[in-house]
Amino acid sequence: MNIVELNKITKFYFGCEDIARALGISVASAKVTASRYTSQGFLLRFKKNIYVLRDVWKSATRGDKMRLANLGQVPSYISLTTALDYYQITTQMQTDFIESVAIKRSKEISMDGSVFRYVKMARNLYKTFNKEKGFFIATPEKALLDAFYLMSYGRYSFDLSSLDAKRLDRREIKRLSREFPLKTGNLLKRNGYL
């Protein structure tokens, strides 16, 4: 078997079933092959049964990485500074760091220089996101509120001076903030967002 044969897989990320089909082997053998190729550095393992060819990863776009981020923890959506950067509302740029909100647990996945961080959010606040270009991402106002929510509990830090607040819909912030705890609302008021 040759790593070149894996180039038959046209997906950005894939699992052992795809490896089995490409190489004409059983899924059990594909698991062993995936492990060996990961050890040898030909494949990158994102999480259980999700792999990316190293050469494909080198040319991955931010959109590719954001689509992958949604799989690191299911369900999750991209939010916080990453979403605000995506919408060009902050000058804080994050090229190889993607933040997501999840409902299961907080965790971090590192893969070949990129970091995918998942922050646990209260289940009742897990909403107000859209699917754009194949990935789920918070609306700009919800990304801001997610950041303020986590900041109000001391679980996040954010450079508020980097924001272009004129690009945010204040009415939408006010409407969405009603769902958040009082301490989040108080922090929004202290910083002039309510």
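That was protein one. Protein two is written in the same sequence-then-structure order:
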Amino acid sequence: MALVDRYSGVIFDYGGVLAFHQTVADSAGMANIAGLPARAFHDLYWTDRLAYDRGLTTAEDYWNDLARRGGVALDSQQILRLIEADVQSWLKFDSGVYDFAESLRQSGKQIAVLSNMPRELGEVLKAKTNGFAPFAHLTLSYEVKSVKPEPAIYEHCLAGMGLRPEEILFLDDRIENIRGAERLGVRGVQFTSRDEVLPKLMAET
């Protein structure tokens, strides 16, 4: 029996699993819009990002705070361009992982998305793409005001799926998020790459 066949449901992270990570060029392009050095922008981008993902700060406040910490000021057009560039940088879907998810759905498994992401990205994904189309349940951090690896965000996803923790497999690229799931009894697999992980999930054991 393949590892994935032992479970009734599979939860997918979004960034780094269903979609590729931002590229260096993506980050550099946003740094250019903000008028900041690329390295400094990268560090500032991830500092306090979880507050934005949690839905506790607006996009405008997030970008203005980033600029303030970087010693620059942004006008309204720069902020709009940064929001757009940021969203676009996370829309590079991994078709191979989506094919895998669709095969699970067709086999009768429940599949869900559990992701830290800001409202701007989530709403574009829902309204303008098919990025969430295969999934019966979504748990997005900005909607539940909780982020991985906090217990509450996993509990929301488990409740939405209606399955027991031991019935679920969770795929995420960050080990701290895997550990958060495991503390609740969910089997986690760190998603290092599609080519490495998917064959392991499908291998007979």
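Residues 76-89 form the longest helix (14 residues). Keep this in mind for the problem set.
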